[in-house]
Target: ATP synthase subunit beta
Amino acid sequence: MTSRRLLCSLLRSASRRSVSNPRLCSPLPMRRPFPCTYFISRDAQYSISAAASTAPSQPPPAKVAGRGKITDEFSGAGAIGQVCQVIGAVVDVRFDEGLPPILTVLEVMDHSIRLVHEVAQHLGENMVRTIAMDGTEGLVRGQPVPVGKATLGRIINVIGEPIDDKGELKTYHFLPIHREAPAFVDQATEQQILLTGIKAVDLLAPYQRGGKIGLFGGAGVGKTVRIMELINNVAKAHGGFSVFAGVGERTREGNDFKCALVYGQMNEPPGARARVGLTGLTVAEYFRDAEGQDVLLFINNIFRFTQANSEVSALLGRIPSAVGYQPILATDLGGLQERITTTKKGSITSVQAIYVSADDLTDPAPVTTFAHLDATTVLSRQKVLQNYKNLQDIIAILGMDELSEDDKLTVARARKIQRFLSQPFHVAEAFTGAPGKYVELKASITSFQGVLDGKYDDLPEQSFYMVGGIEEVIAKADKNAKESAA
Model:
């Protein structure tokens, strides 16, 4: 017992000596020398306690008073730390008095370029480990983001800074990106169908307004094209506000009227890609809670969000779980998905693209995402109805003449329905030359019911391919007949 007390006393004395001696502030040697002494300021408004607040607020300005020290007007006390270690995107910071909470923003002072980090771990009693929102040599992204109507029609990064060369955002409303999900008593329970104008979706697998919609698929199966078509059809017909969050994707898509664009591109570090989804969600939450709007939130791609958090987890030294993902995969996805909901004030309808690695739907990332979604669409390279492959082979081998008259009629109508489910998209006009079509739900039901009832048995099946309504089928059949007669 005496030896244990003596050991604790020696450890406490060694800790005091390391705090008083700046040369012992780092447990490991620095990887690169600093050109000057860096100080870290901590703003209490960005702490986790303020993150739970839903009321928009403007971050108070900090006054610089000699050698970069910050006077925090919000808390009335300055909080200065010193950078002790930089290893890539991981920065360790020592504080002499107190530690900032997890998810707090730390900003580097006495430097020509703004550097912002997010606290990820506490190391002992006087040191924190942070993740940089960008490269430690250049501009770094921050946490509180501007919200409001000033963001509509603008392209912003993870901290709300405009990147579209259209000047600064003129807004005084700011919200932290780390917030609590709405309580169950505040959520609405009404269910309405979201009309998309796409025949295959509205007729076979309709989406729910105010819910979470997932588009699953591997590389190159059309997830981004489907999202772009939904932006064109739903957002324009919806007439409300839309937010597009590009998480770890290319910045080639996402143009729309009354739409706020939030991008964290492929070339961004994992810290920015892991937080840009929360930034876009925060902008949508403001329109829902403060403006009372029905907001459309498009996220491309949720898998990049998971991938970025996996990289951050590896940087923090956490033990990976199945298939190399972070051990808190369900927590990371739940923190984002549970905030996307319909409340009594407004709603957020989210359309999310989920990349399926190697077309494996049993991968932990899509499996975890499945549990949060209200509607799913799986885009596959193979036909879903594989059970009917043998029947197709029989028809191909024996020919249509071997079938009975009733079977011939059934096969002919089935082929017409299969082709009638196709539809030209607006986003593909530049490639196909065919104008896009928006088909109302009532027209789709009437048309398909007419095909099943045999009203259009006299029309050739090639007339049903890549058209909108049934009127276009009739017009296309007449045109082909005239061309054949000529």
